[in-house]
Write a structure and sequence with these properties.
By secondary structure, this protein is α+β, with helices and mostly antiparallel strands. It contains 17 helices and 16 strands. The structure holds serine. Serine binds at residues 39-41, 91, 158, 187, 189, 218-220.
Length: 536
């Protein structure tokens, strides 16, 4: 059973039994005395003391929810089989709608009959002070045929959340996980009292309990643990909610990333106090533990995000203008799936309700590929058809090198041939002298400066005539079709520094290149020089 199905099954089960389904409340509660939402009951806290409002607000005395929760008390335990800082909690609640008998029977029916799990044992409250031993729960479990029923102390008394609130005895259900360990699955709280102080004060005898007029029910089932039990997994990371993280480090990264994301979604910013500090701590721990396993996760995300934002910013403007998806892809590096996603999600914003003509896109792509083959055959003489990451980078470096030679050595330099392997690029060019060391150094520096400048490599399709008119570099003797693609690089000030006829492919941005280095400069024949260069 998939985790999604379990959620739905739970809500359906309680809906069919007269419960109103209520969406998860925010992770940041209204209650200023609590940092985060830590339990499903928090959004319902006021209804236990004013149950008449439940019918007014929900049309029912009973509710059920799947609540997002953050608990950081056990942050140091994260990395083991079951502890998480962010988790979901399935819960059913009642404000005078039903009592112990129904609450326990619902739980039993759901666990045993709906999910097919076996209950290992259950607990009930042994009683203390004003609160009597919970014999009623013990008897209900007996009637349901549970053999192992254990009496327990303050662990099975739910204290108020925040500085006061409803509280009462609980009964817990344990099931065995795939390792044979007993895992607490469900906590059923009978909110029969109101406590005028915090849990801490209650434990110290500094707060008083007052019996409530009606019975309140508050149940909570840790979703991830439940899924692990249903899916017969040894730990929550083996369920379909995670990616089978094995080591403590990987688990901390997975858990904290999830928690941080959920907290950020609520508008919390990292800071030195309160919620912001929790967020800061989670992010710092992700950094620390990813360093420890040698994966710079946040750095990679940042790099990728920065690069993508450039594509996105330009592409979005073009998309809004209604630019053809094919041009969005070939000229602006906007993949079709992104265009489709935007068309689906943003029609209201864009005011267009765009429909993407896939057939037209595919037709243009086929033509485009034919064209690329023709012109790259011209570019990569000698069939260099192998376009992998390394050759693509060298290909862009090749354009920059030609531009650098023209800018610093002689503006009349023309390319006479080229050859690119995974290891290096080779360019032959017309030039009347051997390059001096100073010239080589200047060209090298110039190319490296362009790499640092983060320049986009933009592809434009245009008629051959127009490309010739704008003076795009073409290789002498190569055959070009009627419509050609030209790759253009502009410097930071918007001046074109390189424009070449070319079938590509190229990288999107010069920052993807490492350091450019000229290995060798030599003569090929009279007036023709050859450079071999690499990007490191
Ligand atoms: N409030 C109880 C808990 O969080 C039951 O929902 O465990």
């Amino acid at each position: 059973m998939k985790s999604d199905e379990i959620r739905i099954k739970f809500l359906e089960f309680f809906k069919n039994r007269g419960h109103k389904i209520i969406p998860s409340a925010s992770l940041v509660p209204d209650d200023p005395t609590v940092l985060f939402t830590t339990a499903g009951m928090q959004q319902f806290k006021s209804y236990y003391t004013a149950p008449e409002n439940a019918v007014r607000d929900f049309g029912s005395k009973n509710t059920a929810s799947v609540q997002k929760c953050v608990r950081t008390v056990d942050i140091d335990e994260v990395g083991d089989a079951n502890h998480l800082t962010f988790f979901e909690m399935l819960g059913n609640f009642s404000f005078g709608g039903y009592n112990r008998k129904e609450a326990i029977t619902y739980a039993y029916d759901f666990i045993v009959k709906e999910l097919g799990l076996e209950i290992s044992y259950v607990t009930f409250y042994k009683g203390e002070g004003l609160v009597p031993r919970d014999e009623e729960s013990e008897n209900i479990w007996k009637e349901l045929g549970i053999k192992d029923i254990r009496e327990d102390g303050s662990d099975v008394f739910w204290g108020p959340t925040g500085d006061s609130g409803p509280c009462g005895p609980t009964t817990e259900i344990y099931c065995k996980n795939a390792d044979g360990q007993d895992v607490e699955i469900w906590n059923i709280v009978f909110n029969e009292y109101f406590c005028d102080g915090s849990r801490e004060k209650l434990d110290k005898g500094e707060a008083k309990l007052k019996k409530l007029d009606v019975m309140g029910i508050d149940t909570g089932m840790g979703f991830e643990r439940l899924v692990a039990t249903v899916q017969k997994k040894k730990d929550v990371y083996e369920t379909d909610l995670f990616n089978n993280e094995k080591t403590r480090e990987e688990r901390i990264i997975a858990d904290h990333t999830r928690a941080a994301l959920e907290i950020i979604k609520e508008g919390v910013e990292p800071s030195n106090a309160g919620r912001g500090y929790v967020l800061r701590r989670l992010i710092r721990r992700v950094t620390l533990y990813s360093d420890r396993i040698g994966v710079k996760i946040s750095e990679k995300f940042n790099e990728e995000e920065t690069k993508f934002r450039k594509t996105l910013a330009i592409g979005l403007v073009e998309f809004e203008k209604g630019t053809d998806p094919f041009i969005l892809f070939t000229t602006y590096g906007f993949p079709l799936e992104l265009t489709l996603e935007l068309a689906k999600d943003l029609p209201a914003q864009a005011g267009k309700g765009k429909k993407i003509d896939l057939e037209d896109f595919n037709k243009k792509m086929v033509e485009h590929q034919k064209l690329s083959q023709t012109s790259s055959a011209g570019m990569f003489k000698g069939g260099l058809a192998n376009h992998n990451e390394k050759t693509v980078k060298l290909h862009t470096a090749h354009h920059l090198l030609l531009a650098g030679l023209q800018a610093l050595v002689d503006k009349n330099i023309k390319q006479r041939g080229s050859n690119i392997t995974e290891e290096r690029l080779r360019m032959d060019f017309l030039c009347d002298h051997k390059l001096t060391d100073d010239e080589k150094k200047k060209v090298e520096d110039w190319v490296n400066e362009k790499i640092k400048d983060d320049l986009n490599i933009v592809r434009k399709e245009m008629p051959l005539k127009e490309a010739e008119k704008i003076g795009a570099e073409m290789e002498f003797g190569a055959k070009y079709p009627d419509v050609v693609s030209v790759y253009i690089v502009e410097d930071k000030n918007g001046n074109v520094i390189s424009k070449e006829f070319c079938g590509g492919p190229h990288i999107k941005n010069t920052s993807e290149l490492g350091t450019f280095k000229i290995l060798k400069e030599e003569a090929v024949s009279a007036g023709v020089r050859r450079i071999k260069a690499v990007v490191l």
